[in-house]
Amino acid sequence: MTRDVSELGEIRKIIHIDMDAFYASVEQRDNPELRGVPIAVGHAEGRGVVAAASYEARRFGVRSAMPSMRAAKICPGLVFVKPRFDVYKKVSAAMHEIFHEYTDIVEPISLDEAFLDVTVNKAGEPMAVNIAREIKSKIRERLGLTASAGVSYNKFLAKIASDYRKPDGLCTIHPSQALDFIRRIPVEDFWGVGPVTAARMHALGIWNGEQLAACSAELLSHEFGKSGRIFYQFARGIDNRPVEPLWTRKSVGCEITLQEDLVTVGEIKQVISDLAEELVWRIGRSVFRGCTLTLKLKFSDFSQCSRSHTAPHAYQNKDLIAQAAVRLLALAPVVGRQVRLVGLSVSMPEHGSSSRTVYDPRQLEFDFENGYD
Hints:
Layout: E1 14-19, H1 22-30, E2 39-42, E3 50-53, H2 55-58, H3 68-74, E4 79-81, H4 85-99, E5 106-110, E6 113-117, H5 128-143, E7 147-152, H6 155-164, E8 170-172, H7 175-184, H8 195-203, H9 209-213, H10 217-224, H11 226-234, E9 251-262, H12 265-286, E10 290-299, E11 304-310, H13 318-329, E12 339-349
Parallel strand pairs: 2-4, 7-8
Antiparallel strand pairs: 1-6, 1-7, 2-3, 5-6, 9-12, 10-11, 10-12
Helix pairs in contact: 4-5, 10-11, 12-13
């Protein structure tokens, strides 16, 4: 049965734009010999990881953050291309110029995706889906690339919608369709649900949005902490976060919960080396420069500790990160303890990095029946 969420209060028109296989698509655009070829942006040598994979490579199961050696094994003929972040940044800037032709309420998430609030827009266009369609067209014409767009009344649903028909997709989730749409999607599609959280939900018998919505706020909060309250609201189509153009990334990090606890320093060092690879990829993707490196450890008794060091330079090299993290490990109380989680992050942005345009976001009500899609 179709239900409506209009009674939830203020309704916005939100667009989520997500470039399709961004780094890989830029490389294929600039080098015709790579078109139609499975490519991975990243370093093939050593302990490199895939920063991005073309759709030709994805058909073989190649994914971002996958070790390069594994990617090469599962995809015969895979071509590795070294990343050119300076080029990606320029393309991203041109993409944002297109966004600002319609609204200044733009929240960048990374180089290749952003939220736009077009409730009130420069074009005076009442149909949010028309703006999304025009943006996609301009990205194709001016940049020679494709993007997928999601349109809905909040950020959670707009992001789900942009993933729904990739690549080169356009999907609208109307308030009258939202709850039925959410009911059908797997929990893995919910914002903030990674493999570990999904496995915990499955253990509780929660596999889709309908089963998630049947859970009480108390149960979800008990099982997932603060995230449980967010999952409770998402399952009901509620996400009141505004699109925030004034936004500064304060840190970039990654962590892993081990299937088996680590018991030796050597094992922890190996995990640190692997995390350093992924952290460098995330730093590059986020265009972030931070001088403080933090090592986080969680033990088998669920207690945790962290050790940090601030350097006179930004942490961007995987070897320097790994070496510094090992020095931090020597300061942590790991002897005789079992480690179940290891995390690395960089923080304290250098002056002027990751800054965002300041704008006074307006949040107005409007009638979905007259101009949403």
